[in-house]
Design goal:
globular, Nuclear Transport Factor 2, Chain: A, about 180 residues, single chain, about 35% strand, alpha+beta
Length: about 180
């Protein structure tokens, strides 16, 4: 199960937990307010700053695409799949099947990597949502190389949704589809 909440809500939830007033409900925004005594507030601030990472930069998020593209270049489907969260969803470029398991993701890339894909960003928008999540959306072009050495290109639109989990940025959702022709 995924929970989506802003860093500010996470700070309040952490402070509430430290103050001993938080419930175990998964609805953080509606939870109780933390106590405001000086000792609890100082402790909450100290632990919160240690728990929550700084906001990533757009450049750092752009680097996650470069990491993914480098994994493609290895030709190793398992290595590419390692970049996806265990509960990730992949809507791949050249397949009509949605992939929701590691085995499905590995299967897709095992076949896709046979064409030695290299992706190049054409246009992108990166949104840093909070300290642990970001979205990279845009247009990219794949250059594919056939077994006979001939190349072809596929223009596609993409969305990568990333989450910081266990200290690693992982892809939790990846949609890629061939770019429609026309306007």
């Amino acid at each position: 199960m995924r929970r989506t909440y802003s860093a500010g809500v996470a700070v309040a939830a952490t402070a509430a937990l430290l103050a001993g007033t938080a419930s175990t409900s998964s609805t953080y925004a509606a939870g109780p307010r933390p106590r405001t005594t000086a000792g609890h507030t100082a402790t909450a601030r100290a632990v919160t700053s240690a728990v929550l990472p700084a906001l990533p930069t757009r450049m750092q998020i752009a680097g996650l695409f470069d990491r993914w593209n480098a994994a493609l270049a290895t030709g190793d489907a398992d290595r590419v799949a390692d970049l996806y969260a265990p509960d990730a969803v992949l809507l791949p470029t050249l397949s009509a099947r949605m992939r929701t398991t590691r085995a499905g993701i590995v299967d897709y890339f095992a076949h896709f990597l046979e064409s030695r894909p290299v992706a190049r960003i054409q246009q992108r928008v990166i949104d840093v949502l909070d300290a642990t999540s970001a979205v990279d959306t845009g247009l990219y072009r794949f250059t594919l190389t056939g077994k006979d050495g001939t190349t072809s290109t596929v223009d596609a639109r993409y969305t990568f949704v990333y989450e910081l989990r266990g200290g690693r940025w992982l892809i939790v959702s990846h949609h890629s589809s061939a770019l429609p022709t026309g306007g």
